[in-house]
Design goal:
- The N and C termini lie far apart (138 Å).
- This protein is 60% helix and 0% strand.
- The chain contains ten helices and no strands.
- The chain has one domain.
- By secondary structure, it is mostly helical.
Length: 271
């Protein structure tokens, strides 16, 4: 398996090297900004998969009550629960795997950039924003790398906040605080690789903000609270008095004045 994977990794590394060299040579971008530009191009190419991810997330949110009912109904039979959920997915055309497609598609790019930064001999300016002197060196080799790691943790938490909208609160908190664990592994990577991950996280955050603004949310109609003493509301159509006349106003019984009845005086006959 490893023997077959090595040529694929070498090809991915060669493609990534040509892409970075094109941005650096033809557009005159520094190597660090070439990585940022490559990240933006990759995310633009992944827009169709991202749209499918958004639609899948919206569909899961829409059918969440029915899915919870199935899970509650078959909570003691996990196999039956999975069968009913898969049947429910097919009937409603839901693909839960669509939410993972953009992340899986970025995995080859991540691997290619890692080996490119590890083997490629860069020439020229390797700094980024004057606080990271060398993007091909380890992230913790300079104090600027710690700043980059801090930005990585914050951006990863924010992106998880927008991506994990269909999971429950416990899993959502777990995904949000997971970067605090992975930061010790990410710190050993080259600074350019962390820069790529920070850029894609910031893209995800911006994408989530735009999506929340564009997705129309129709609020549920407000229900009128009624008590036992509240009389039922009667709707009466306005009565028209002739053509073009103003509608007759209904007068409530309480506002009408009591009708005064005059009593007739009895006449006395003269004898």
């Amino acid at each position: 398996m490893i023997v077959y994977a090595i040529p694929i990794i070498s090809q991915l590394e060669a493609v990534m090297r040509h892409v970075l060299d094109w941005f650096h040579s033809n557009l005159g971008l520094p190597w660090a900004w070439s990585i940022v530009a490559t990240t933006v191009v990759v995310r633009v190419l992944l827009v169709p998969l991202t749209i499918r991810q958004i639609h899948s997330t919206q569909s899961l949110q829409k059918h969440a009550p029915q899915m919870k009912e199935i899970q509650k109904k078959y909570k003691h039979d996990r196999q039956k629960q999975n069968e009913e959920l898969m049947k429910f997915y097919r009937e409603n055309q839901i693909n839960p795997a669509s939410a993972c497609l953009p992340m899986l598609a970025q995995l080859p790019v991540f691997i290619a950039l890692y080996y490119t930064l590890k083997h490629f001999k860069f020439t020229g300016d390797l700094s980024f924003l004057h606080f990271i002197p060398n993007i091909s060196a380890g992230t913790t080799a300079h104090w600027g790398g710690y700043v980059l790691l801090f930005v990585y943790v914050g951006s990863q938490m924010a992106s998880s906040l927008f991506m994990m909208t269909t999971v429950d609160k416990t899993q959502r908190l777990l995904f949000m605080f997971m970067p605090l664990v992975f930061v010790f592994i990410i710190a050993r990577f080259p600074a350019g690789l962390v820069l790529y991950w920070v850029t894609t996280n910031l893209w995800t955050v911006g994408q989530g903000l735009i999506t929340r603004r564009l997705v129309s949310r129709t609020p549920a109609p407000a229900l009128e609270k009624r008590s036992s003493r509240t009389p039922p509301k009667q709707e009466t159509a306005p009565a028209l008095q002739g053509d073009g006349a103003q509608p007759r106003q209904e007068v409530s019984p309480s506002s009408q004045k009591p009708r005064q009845v005059r009593r007739k005086k009895k006449r006395t006959s003269r004898r």
